[in-house]
Amino acid sequence: MLVCEHASNHIPARYAGLGLPEAELRRHIAWDIGAAALSRRLSVLLDAPLIMSGASRLLIDCNRPPGAPSSIPLVSEATEIPGNHGLLPEEVATRRAAFFDPFQAEVTRCLDGREAAGVRSVILGIHSFTPVFLGTPRPWHAGVLYRDAVEFGAWLRDALSADTALVVGDNEPYQVNLEEDYTVPVHGDARGIPAALIEVRQDLLGSNSGVEAWAQRLAGILRHRH
Asked: Are 121 and 3 in contact (CB under 8 A)?
């Protein structure tokens, strides 16, 4: 089962771009560039269910626990998000009800349905990351992030690393933790379902051929997951 929590940079007109110029909303701060295209192609190749967010993570992040500082960020990387400052509890609740809760409910519904049908699930979240973060270059082509599902995470990491041309991060460039993550701890670990996130460097997903290459690579690996 595929999940893409940061698929879209869409912000409804009523939010006036959260006070940001359009150029900022095209950056990584608003979404995971290339992740939606990779998710859709991988879903087709694997005939796997896919659930994608429909709004920017700047409104509310579907992979952050509500109430966490990064759930509705005041600053993303080094960019102030004016429209997220001074929010009343009612507005926070409105965003959660509009964007966060429906996404999580659909993930839960899909997993429940598969369990009821006797279908064993594995969850893979599809993400992308910037080649440079706050001035520091990142050496990885991809990273595998996991917490309790050590066997699944290590298997995926090792399968990717079998291509010696790739530099694959093991819980890099990020780490999964209970305070700042939702998909893996809640939908995966808490239910005893193997769950991991795959992070692919954005510049490798900047073209149709790049997306296709990574989709084929991941599909070829995941087809052999038993």
From this structure: no
- Report d(CA 122, CA 1) in Å as an integer: 6
| pLDDT in single tens digits along all 226 residues of the chain | 999 999 999 999 999 999 999 999 999 999 999 999 999 999 999 999 999 999 999 999 999 999 999 999 999 988 999 999 999 999 999 999 999 999 999 999 999 999 999 999 999 999 999 999 888 899 999 999 999 999 999 999 999 999 999 999 999 999 999 999 999 999 999 999 999 999 999 999 999 999 999 999 999 999 987 5
3 state SS for 22-51: HHHHCCCCCCCCCHHHHHHHHHHHHCCCEE
| Entry pTM | 0.95
Residues 173, 140 contacting (CB under 8 angstroms)? yes
Q: Where are the domains of the chain?
A: 2-222
* Class at the top of the CATH hierarchy for domain 2-222: alpha beta
Surface-to-core class of residue 38, CB atoms within 10 Å of its CB (0-12 exposed, 13-18 middle, 19+ buried): buried
Cis before 173 (ω within 30) = yes
